[in-house]
Amino acid sequence: MLPQSTLVATESHHTHDDISITQSQLDSIAKKIYQNETGSNPNYLIAWNEGENFASLGLGHFIWFPKGLNSPFTETFPDFIEYLLVHDVAVPEWMLNNRDFPFHSKEKYTNAINSEKMLALKRLMLNTFSHQINFIFNRMQRALPLMLNENLSLAQQKHVRERFYKLANTSLGLYSLIDYVNFKGEGVSKSERYADKGWGLLQVLLNIQDDQQNINVAFSQACKYVLNRRVYNSPQREIEAKWIKGWERRCDTYR
Q1: pLDDT below 70 — which residues of the chain?
Q2: Rounded to whole angstroms, what are the CA distances from 93 to 10, 81, 103, 109, 117?
Q3: What is the pTM of this model?
C-alpha cells in the first residue's frame, strides 16, 4: 500500500479541456500504478531491470540515465526533479547540480544499494507519491495535442480524439490513459520505434477497432497487439519476450 501520508486525499480538482479528476481519484490511480510497477513493494521504488542500461525510480518507474548514455527511450526522471523544485519540494543537495544517475552500471548500482545517496533517493521517492501521480497525470494531459500534431490524416485525427475522450469519460478509461502514457509513452518519439513501428498511446488508439462495443476491452486488446508487435520487431527479442506476460497482465487491468 502507499505510504500513509499520501492516503489523506484532498478534494481539489484537476481539469484539462473536458477531463476532470479529484486528488482522491488520482491517489486511487496511484495505488494501481504502484502495484503495476513495483508490486506495491517499496524495495522496488528504485530498480535497474535486466536488459536495460538505466535506472527506474518512483511509483511510475521514471527512467533516469547515467552520464553519457545514448538511449532510444524517453528519460523522465530529470523532468520529475524539475517538477519537485517548481513545487518547492526539497531534494538531496547533490541532485541540484547533477541531472545524471550517479551510478554508471548495474553492478555499481547494486554495490551502492545501501549508500547514503541511494537511501536519500529512496526517502525522496517514498515521501513524494502525491507529487509523482500529479506529474504522471500532467503528462497524460499533454498527450492528446502531441499525438494530434503527428502526421495523421483527418480521419485518423478524428479516430484518435474520439477514442481518447471516450476512454477519458470513464473512471477505468481515465486510469488506463494515465497508466499507459507513463508505461509506454505517447507514441510520438521517433526513436521509440522498432522496424518503424511504435508502441505508445498513439499506436494503441489507432489500432482500436471501430466495431468494438466496449471501449475498455478494445483498448486492452489494442495495447496487447502493439506490445506483442514491439517484441516481435525488437532487436533484443529474447529479452523483451520475457516481459510480455507481465505487460499483458497490466493490459488486463484496463478492461
Answers
A1: 1-18, 211-212
A2: 30, 12, 17, 19, 10
A3: 0.90
